[in-house]
Amino acid sequence: MLKKVDEQLKQDLLALSQYIYDHPELGYEEEKSSQAHMALLEKYGFKVERNYLGVATGFRAEFVKGADAPTIAFLAEYDALPEVGHGCGHNILGTLSTGAAIHLAQNMGDASGRIVVIGTPAEETSGAKVIYADKGAFDDVDVALISHPFCANVKSGSSYAIKALRFRFIGRAAHAAAAPEKGINALDACIMTFNNIGLLRQQILPTAKIHGIITEGGVVPNTIPELAVADFYVRATSKSYLEELSRRVSDCARAGALAAGAKVEISNFEASYDNLLTNHTLQDCLIKNWNEMGITEIEEAGEANGSTDVGNVSHVCPTIHPSFDITAPGECYSTHTAEFRDATLREPAKAALEKNVCALAMTGKDIIDDPALLQRIKQEFKNAVEND
């Protein structure tokens, strides 16, 4: 039964994806999208907690059968992008997670388990998974599953841990020609910070990245700037190295301020994301079920090329974040585009949705049925966190 989705559920899932496509909402504004997910989950017997952990458009839905059983969490995203709408395909991503949870609940048989769907707003900006991880939402979860639409089936890989650092330099204004000696140039402190970081780049790991912009740097050229602001992203493929590198980048800003005689205030302007720790034992289970569903063309994940708040989940419980192909053979559209957005509604995407609902649900059922498998997954997770 797990290899085929009930016809009514299939139609409900297609309607959910279409509805969210038609009503794109930005992060933390996903009122209609979250309500649509919750309504469908309640229809199929899930108990839903709204406004989960204080996030207005977040939720936690649970289906419990029996006691002392594994907890399988499916992570649903449903935020859109400015102008392009669901160019990242979150209309079908969230639908997949909700659908897999319902499909698993319908096919538990005699097994016991707790199936959870966590609605996680704002993945495109300051992701709610960070808030949830910090507040303990995943502490009672045995495994977390999420899969992203793409133009290929790709294994879960790695991602950059990221810190968003803001340096606010405070100087003193003065007339640049009549009395420059009375000023303290905040822009000088900012520019020296960029120079310091440029030199620092020669001594960092090749897997790390630092990039920044000046958002404020003065108003007119004949006034010494009393305020300058720079925003930087610092990325690394391990959480521990990110912490070290962020301290060094911050020291570059402190040195620039000291040299200019200015002050510097250091803060985070967005949530910090951890690097993704893919659980390969869990991934192998999904790949087995992909193959069972006829999905056999599977690509290896490349090097980290971005950051995701799923990384924070992966430091709390075993997690995978693969990608699934929603396109026709020979098609490939870049994500964050209108072309990819529209591909989520075509027939190849509808077929891929059903297959992946089954594969994710089958993976959850394997974990519920096989305590030894879950133990291996947890042991790998423990080792990965200790060695990161």
Describe the structure.
This protein has 388 residues and is an alpha/beta fold. It is built from 11 helices and 14 strands. The strands form 4 sheets. Strands 1-2-4-3-5-13 form a 6-stranded mixed beta sheet. The chain has a 4-stranded antiparallel beta sheet with strand order 9-10-8-11. The longest helix is centred in the last third of the chain and has 23 residues, at 347-369. The radius of gyration is 24 Å and the shape is elongated.
List the helices and strands and how they pair.
Elements: H1 7-22, H2 31-43, E1 47-50, E2 59-65, E3 71-76, H3 90-106, E4 113-119, H4 128-134, E5 143-145, E6 148-150, E7 153-154, E8 161-170, H5 186-200, E9 209-216, E10 227-236, H6 239-260, E11 263-268, H7 280-292, E12 298-299, H8 310-314, E13 319-320, E14 323-325, H9 338-343, H10 347-369, H11 371-387
Parallel strand pairs: 3-4, 3-5, 5-13, 6-14, 7-12
Antiparallel strand pairs: 1-2, 2-4, 8-10, 8-11, 9-10
Taking the sheet with the most strands, its summary is: 6 strands, mixed
The stretches of 5 or more residues where confidence is low (pLDDT under 50) are: none
- The amount of beta strand, in percent, is 15-25%
- Provide the residue-averaged pLDDT: 95
Main structural class: alpha/beta
* Biggest sheet, spatial arrangement of strands: 1-2-4-3-5-13
**Helical content (DSSP H or I, runs of 4+):** 25-40%
Got a strand count?
A: 14
Distance N to C terminus: 39 Å
- If you compute it from the alpha carbons, what radius of gyration comes out, rounded to the nearest whole angstrom? 24 Å
How many alpha or pi helices?
Answer: 11
Q: Could you state the order of secondary-structure elements as H and E?
A: HHEEEHEHEEEEHEEHEHEHEEHHH
What's the overall geometry?
elongated
